[in-house]
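BUG: 3D viewer hangs when loading the predicted structure for this chain

Environment: internal workstation, default settings.
Expected: structure renders.
Actual: progress bar stalls at 90%.

Input used:
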Amino acid sequence: MRDVAVVAFAQTRHTGQDTGLSEPELIQPVIDEVKVRSGLKRFGFTCSGSCDYLAGAPFSFVSALDALGAWPPVSESHVEMDGAWALYEAWVRLQHGDIDSALVYGFGKSSLGDLDRIMTLQLDPYYLAPLGLDRLSYAALQANAVGADRAELAEIVRRSRADGRGNPYALDLPDPEEGEQPHAVRPLLRGDVPPVTDGAAAIVLAAGDLAGRVCDRPAYIRGIAHRIEPHYLGMRDLATSPSAADAARAAGVGKGPVEVAELHAQFPHEEIILRAALELPRDTVINPSGGPLAANPVMATGLIRIGEAARRIHDGGARRTVAHAAGGPCLQHNLVTVLEA
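Structure tokens produced before the viewer hung:
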């Protein structure tokens, strides 16, 4: 395997409402920023992650390519998934050995529609959607299966929002209300639901000697793997995540200490499941960025977890971190990345 590292990361200052920017206008500043940070103007491969259902138009990623410019020509690919899976594709492409750099980005504007309906249609328009379930109903079923103490869930939300307020890119959300809160779908309270967020992120990967030339402290990808479970909820134990556990083992999470873990936990009970599945040490700092409960730009949230985990290494604050991304209902599809200085 070739050594591949995250050498630059940038994200938008996320917003909770539409600011009038088109997708190319949203993306271009972060692409310009990672070009400056890495010193690279051209890349051997470019891959993006987005969702046509969010934009309400087919092949919306094609118009987003305007952010790259018409020249020089690019070798480009796209995944109809979170940008974390675009990064996985770019990592595989770099293993071929004929190129040394890749640009990865993800973007989404959740404010333009009803996210519950959009994600239900995007994830499964044929089989489960006719039952009337949406993403909150799925999450509520899983929360019931976990049966976590309300105080523990509330503390996860409080900590995430507090950390988010210290993150200039996340939303400025107040602490959850004490006492009675309205339910989103029982047992989930409104404060347990990730905020509607518009945003984008970009990462530059570099292989071999190039990584050390363009970055003082590259965040090397020492393990990366993803696993998926059956779509039908009745075929799964919703209180656990075997696919996250399998991906963590394949990526080598347990082969060393984990100082920071950025988890794609959109609901507080998902953090409980993922901590157990990844077998994270008790002293691991979870989502110091605030995580998805502080900013959830759909189709970029998982990529941001990788970028935030890499940033801790770039800044010298950590030597070994873990990033997690999820897709599908109830943590169906999980990607785990181990990063080391």
